[in-house]
Amino acid sequence: MASRPKLSNAARPATYGVEAYNERGEMVPTAVAGEHPLTLYLDKRELVTLMTLGHAPEALAVGFLRNQRIVTSLDDIEAVQVDWETDSVAITTAGKIDVKKKTRKKTITTGCGQGTVYGDLMEEIDSVKLRDDVSLADTDLYVLIEKVRKHETIYKQAGAVHGCALATLRGDILMFVEDVGRHNAVDAIAGFMWLDAIDGSDKVFYTTGRLTSEMVIKCAQMRIPFLVSRSGLTKMGHDVAKRVGLTMIGRASGRHYLAFTGRQRLKRAEPVPTALA
User: Across-strand partners of 33?
Assistant: First the structure.
């Protein structure tokens, strides 16, 4: 098991109270989502500035480095230290990272707040092998959809955020992360998974956001075979999901869903005979 880097514990409040006035001119105390700039410095070299809730900044930084393929081993990261006085996170490594080479090519994605992917979008993706011996029953998918709906979230308090969940094949939520951009929420979950050595090969990833190529690539990098969203998808997201063999499920709400790719991993419950319905 990889050694765990030294981490600060610098979470910021997820929501803040402000005054708002309704249509009758009455003051209504209202919760709004936090939003803070967080600049990542890798070995004192400025890398990127992310706009984030600041709810899990250390995991976000680790997951960002993982999903951008800037760091390939947790052993390479010695420390992740967040300082909100300077709105920065200092990441120190064992000195094996060629940052200039890793960040030479940059693609601006459709991620909220302009997501960024460094390097070739499909680099190393063809070598990813997702498990074919796992399946997801639609009854368990419905359980997950309902649990996400009932989950106490920042969105219910303040709106303005995207949520992502990591779940078991039985529909149990293992972690739920929200942020102002869906790509940040994905990266934070990736960071937690890496730090806690969680295997994604028998898990389901749920997102409230649309299914773009970036979402599919990050899910595949985490070796997660199931990607679910209550929203829709893009053509490139669909193409990449087919290419990597990922099971992509969109428009998932209540007891309805659309399986766009990888439907062989889904197990449908036998329909109830009309006479018994």
Answer: 15
Q: Dump pLDDT digits (tens) for 103-157.
A: 665 544 444 444 555 555 566 677 888 999 999 999 999 999 999 988 878 777 7
Angle at 109 (CA atoms; ends 106, 114), nearest 5 degrees: 95
Taking the C-alpha atoms of residue 182 and residue 197, their distance in angstroms, rounded to an integer, is: 22
Percent of the chain at pLDDT > 90 equals 63
Neighbours of 211 (CB within 10 A): 28
The two three-digit tokens of residue 34, written as one number: 């936090």
How many C-alpha atoms does 34 have within 13 Å on its Cβ side? 17
Q: Are 171 and 140 in contact (CB under 8 A)?
A: yes
Task: Name the token pair of 57.
Answer: 């900044």
Q: Find out whether 265 and 170 touch, Cβ atoms under 8 Å.
A: no
Please state whether beta strands 203-207 and 226-229 pair in parallel, antiparallel, or not at all (unpaired): parallel
Distances from the Cα of 172 to the Cα of 154, 168, 265, angstroms: 19, 5, 18
**One-letter amino acid for residue 257 of the chain:** Y
- 3-state SS assignment for residue 77: strand
Q: How far is it, in rounded angstroms, from Cα 29 to Cα 269?
A: 47
Contact present, 127 and 121 (Cβ < 8 Å): no
How many Å separate Cα 96 from the centre of its chain?
A: 27
Q: Return d(Cα 72, Cα 66) in angstroms, integer.
A: 6
Distance CA 215, CA 229 (A): 11
